[in-house]
Design goal:
The complex is a heterodimer. Chain A is built from four helices and no strands. By secondary structure, chain A is mainly alpha-helical. Chain A has two domains: 56 residues, no CATH class; 45 residues. By secondary structure, chain B is an all-alpha fold. Chain B folds into two domains: 167 residues, no CATH class; 82 residues, no CATH class. In chain B, α1 packs antiparallel against α2, α1 runs parallel beside α3 and α4 packs parallel to α12. The longest helix of chain B is centred in the N-terminal third of the chain and has 31 residues. The radius of gyration of chain B is 19 Å and the shape is globular. Classes of the chains: A mainly alpha, B mainly alpha. Chains A and B meet through α1, α2, α3 and α4 of A and α1, α2, α3, α4 and α5 of B.
């Protein structure tokens, strides 16, 4: 699974990510004025995270039921603005509990 | 100069702890998809970006076309260019070209958020005005970098030893974090809520609708993201002052 092409992927990942961060930080000193470009960039992280989460999260555990439980726990705690770690670990606990219960049904 | 460095170190502790747990899940994900421990650590050392690394994994494992890797990283990480751009406004006069080249490597969401608030509160620099100094920035990025790499190693090394039921539970961890990032701002801003919902719907369409589901997951993330962010930018453009306000809100959620 890992051969010499791994290093090409590694170089591409690291290179692209670095250039994105480096070019503006090193070479620009003006602010973006165009509000559409600004807004587009502002919305991107939320769009990316939502696309990556749904529907993939529902197949992230050993079965759909425990995944649904994990999502419900995460959404509720996130709604009450618990920290990232608390939300993530509680979500895992939700999955564990449902997986455990399912063994006995 | 030393006090700024120490202040930076101190501000970095919380980020570093958070990073250990996030990169721990990356280590687990890497090993469970067949990437060896050393390769997972190498990815973390050279990238330092959670979403980008998680999205890159399946592409490496599936030997996806190189262009797909480039475009995936470009779209997922393009937000950093905005943060880098914003950070240029907050660097004081002590930064040389080399400092800028080094610091941009570690300009993550969390570093950016903390550096911005350090600049705004004046604890990041002794110069007059809302800036951070180079010694503060070096202090700030040191521990998070170590935490990121160390957490990956731990996850990758321990991940292969974990029993199945724990792997199942940890599988949801990164998504739990993503949910924790997107829900609080969605609650406060209707426009972000729309972006999150539209993105999720588009992503489901690209996963389940025949023909569309032949598109690889990397590209479908790119397409869904571009469509929903573009629609939102056109329908709900944000004024400059708004953006700054929202970035402050974001900090609280991180």
């Amino acid at each position: 699974m890992i051969d010499s092409s791994f290093f090409v992927y590694l170089a591409l990942m690291a290179g692209v990510t670095y250039i994105i961060r480096m070019v503006p930080l090193t070479f620009f000193n003006k602010k973006i004025k165009n509000k559409y470009v600004q807004s587009f960039l502002f919305y991107i992280p939320y769009a990316v995270l939502s696309c990556m989460t749904f529907p993939a999260v529902f197949s992230a555990t050993s079965n759909l039921y425990s995944a649904v439980a994990g999502v419900i726990v995460a959404v509720i705690l996130a709604f009450y603005e618990k920290s990232l770690i608390v939300v993530a670990i509680s979500s895992c606990a939700g999955v564990l509990i449902v997986d455990f219960i399912l063994k006995f049904i | 100069m030393q006090t700024r460095f120490l202040q930076g170190l101190k501000d970095g502790i919380g980020i570093a702890l958070g990073y250990i747990s996030v990169s721990f899940t990356f280590g687990i994900a890497a090993v469970s998809s067949g990437v060896p421990v050393w390769a997972a650590v190498l990815i973390s050392m050279t990238n330092v970006t959670s979403a980008g690394q998680f999205a890159g994994l399946p592409l490496i494992v599936a030997s996806a076309p190189y262009i797909e890797m480039i475009l995936t990283q470009l779209v997922i990480n393009i937000r950093y260019s905005l943060m880098s751009l914003s950070l240029t406004q907050k660097l004081d006069s002590s930064f040389t070209l080399i400092d800028r080249l080094l610091i941009s490597f570690m300009n993550t969401d969390e570093i950016f958020a903390v550096a911005s608030s350090a600049a705004d509160t004046g604890r990041g620099s002794s110069s007059y005005g809302k800036y951070v100094s180079r010694s503060y920035m070096y202090g700030l990025i040191l521990l998070p970098f170590l935490g990121w790499v160390f957490g990956t190693f731990l996850g990758a090394a321990a991940g292969s030893l974990l029993p199945n039921f724990l792997q199942s539970a940890f599988g949801i961890m990164i998504y739990g974090m993503f949910i924790a990032i997107i829900i609080p701002p969605s609650k406060k801003m209707k426009t972000i809520r729309m972006v999150v919902i539209v993105s999720a719907i588009l992503s489901c369409i690209f996963t389940f609708v025949p023909i569309l589901n032949n598109i690889s997951s990397g590209f479908s993330i790119i397409i869904c993201t571009l469509i929903s962010a573009a629609i939102a930018a056109v329908l709900f453009p944000i004024e400059q002052n708004d953006t700054q306000l929202k970035q402050n809100e974001e900090e609280k959620t991180i």
